[in-house]
Design a protein that fits this description.
- By secondary structure, this protein is an all-alpha fold.
- It contains eight helices and no strands.
- Helix 2 packs across helix 4, helix 2 packs antiparallel against helix 7 and helix 6 runs antiparallel to helix 7.
- It is globular.
- The chain starts with a helix and ends with a helix.
- It holds the Pfam family TerB.
- It comes from Shewanella loihica (strain ATCC BAA-1088 / PV-4).
- This is Co-chaperone DjlA N-terminal domain-containing protein.
Length: about 150
């Protein structure tokens, strides 16, 4: 498990295939979404149902693939020491629009239970900073998520 995490976090000495890069990106995104889910120390039913839906729609995965990704992300996320481990992968591979979609998904998860915990808010804000998003973008995405959940 630790070896797998080290492999995920450190630069590869050999060139990664496009499939490996895509898998690392999916895992990083899933880990960041799990950070939001676990921020308030409870796994709400709405959050648990929404997480695989977000992954299937955003990453074009089947429900089984999303569930497997969530299980793998739980292991990696539980051993992570900072958000940077995941945001670096996203910064390396994603466009601005893709980063915004990730933050929108994080806000949507945070508001899924009808209550925004201050820890959820902090994680999303720190993630947005690490993804080099402007504060105005963060607020626009938050407002879009609020309107989506109404």
């Amino acid at each position: 498990m630790i070896a797998k995490l080290k492999q995920f976090l450190t630069a590869q000495t050999h060139a990664e295939s496009p499939e490996e890069k895509a898998k690392h990106l999916q895992l990083a995104a899933a880990c960041l979404l799990l950070e939001v889910v676990y921020a308030d120390q409870t796994l709400d039913d709405q959050e648990a149902a929404l997480l695989p839906e977000l992954l299937t729609s955003a990453l074009s995965l089947s429900m089984q693939e999303a569930q497997a990704l969530i299980a793998e992300a739980r292991q990696v996320q539980g051993n992570a020491t900072s958000l940077f481990e995941f945001t670096k992968e996203i910064n390396d591979q994603c466009t601005l629009e893709q980063k915004q979609q990730l933050i929108l998904a994080m806000w949507t998860l945070a508001y899924a239970d009808g209550n925004l915990c201050r820890y959820e808010d902090q994680i999303i804000r720190r993630t947005a900073e690490l993804l080099y998003l402007k504060h105005s973008e963060l607020i626009q995405l938050r407002n879009a998520a609020i309107n989506k959940t109404r």
